[in-house]
């Protein structure tokens, strides 16, 4: 589920960049800082729960450390300018978070 949510975040970031280029009205809505802040809060809650549960279930901390790095990159991206830099770093953070979830899944097998 967490990997799927990370994928949805990537779709949102890419769709926002495309829509900003095509439709400024739609881009203004999708590019709203409020959407990014709410999305990041949701990602941190779900990510923390899933990665923390993994530590408790299999005692392996590497997935949580990688996932936390991804969440940190995503959080840091909120402070970057909206010139494509924010979306780039958010996608990088989502990829790192997804890697943490994948490592968590593998460790649980």
From TrEMBL:
InterPro entries reported in the protein's UniProt record: Mercury-R_MerC
Record keywords, A-Z: Membrane, Transmembrane, Transmembrane helix
Domain of life: Bacteria
Transmembrane segments: 35-56
One Pfam family of this chain: MerC
Protein name: MerC domain-containing protein
Native species: Sphingomonas telluris
């Amino acid at each position: 589920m967490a990997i799927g949510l990370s994928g949805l975040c990537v779709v949102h970031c890419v769709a926002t960049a495309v829509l900003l280029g095509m439709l400024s009205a739609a881009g203004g809505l999708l590019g709203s800082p409020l959407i990014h802040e709410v999305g990041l809060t949701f990602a941190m809650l779900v990510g923390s729960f899933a990665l923390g549960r993994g530590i408790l279930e299999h005692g392996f901390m590497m997935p949580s450390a990688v996932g936390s790095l991804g969440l940190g990159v995503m959080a840091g991206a909120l402070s970057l300018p909206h010139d494509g830099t924010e979306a780039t770093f958010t996608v990088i953070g989502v990829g790192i978070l997804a890697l943490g979830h994948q490592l968590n899944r593998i460790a649980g097998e």
